[in-house]
Amino acid sequence: GTWRGQRMPDPAEPALSSLSHYLLAHYQKGTRPVRDWRTTTNVAIDLMVYAILSVDEKNQVLTTYIWYRQHWTDEFLRWDPEQFDNLTQISLPVESIWVPDILINEFVDVGKSPHVPYVYVGHHGEVQNLKPIQVMTACSLDIYNFPFDVQNCSLTFTSWLHHIRDINLSLWRQPELVKFDRSVFMNQGEWELLYVLSHFQEFSVKSSDSYAEMKFYVVIRRRPLFYTVSLLLPSIFLMVMDIVGFYLPPNSGERVSFKITLLLGYSVFLIIVSDTLPATAVGTPLIGVYFVVCMALLVISLTETILIVRLVHKQDLQPHVPEWVKRLLLERAPVLLCIRDRKKLSQSRTQSSDISRQAENNDSTAKLNHCSCEDPRESEMAGGARPAPASARHAEGSPLMHGVLQEITAIRQFLEKREEFRDVAREWLQVGYVLDVLLFRAYLVAVLAYSVTLGTLWSVWRDA
Question: Which residue windows are transmembrane per the record (predicted)?
């Protein structure tokens, strides 16, 4: 009437209750469940990623929600199903049986994981421990390619106390099934699960006994659409407007105010997005370097504009353009830069010589008029009738005429001097125009080279 030193199950008692009492009556949960201590307990584990809760770049912490499963054989939890109404599985309290002390080495904080109080036990002693865990683990996060970054964080499962000869680890499913299993992953957050790699290894500290480790590498990728729209596109638009600002006339002060407004707007933009960029003590993301270089380009553009405006600004005591500047910027540079208005530049350069010739002609004409300043009708009447009064009137009118000629000479000198100043200002304006085209194209080449370099870096990284 007894089996294993116990009474046979009462047919009136429920099978679950009778089997539970049968299994736990003399069970000792403090020892490893093997009859021969040389037998190794093999624990098969499995992992499925349910959600990526947060990625803290500053503290280098990854918070995930996983479904974790353990499977091992307990030699003291076996029974004959025929003795218990063909019952092959039973759920037992997890506090009542032995469970392996398998922990995650990267744990940095206890997450808000729900407590599952039961485990499943099969009639051959197979124990299945299934539980969800919120895992807060340390992870070396590389933010250099933010927001196009891919993170690889490991979850290392190992027995904290038992050596590999006592507890060995294995993978429940095939590695290929674990790698691409996204059946339970919530795919609506910022991060996308690429795959989960698994790797088994033995670990020892200072030639001591080895421990079994099962590593799961969770590879995730950030979705960059939000950051592209909110960070990259506004910066690109501001840089495009800065390039368009070069088409404003260099001799107008509107370009300086326009560039200053762009620089101020970009500064406010950087203040707004400073909280969005991840901050770590290890390094700076590439997008941060991109923003700094864009700010430097805006400052260089403003400096170039101030230089050009200062160069073409009209002044009364502005010196003449040096000859080497004329040869370099007004003769050779337009040919090299393929400036279409080279004829206008050459025509405006010859205006000064034409104006000087015109001034000489006016001077000679004034002298002729001075010699023949009398009225022709008076000269005809002076043929012989009254020569004395005509000479007397000429003698009386000569001081007045001399004063008028002095005033006319002064006005002519003033006009010539003003025309000379205009000539000098026009030459400097031509120099400023050519120099502005030269600096604009150099600035455009620098911006394009910087954009191509940055895009190449991101592309190479994504391919890698």
Answer: 225-248, 260-281, 287-309, 438-461
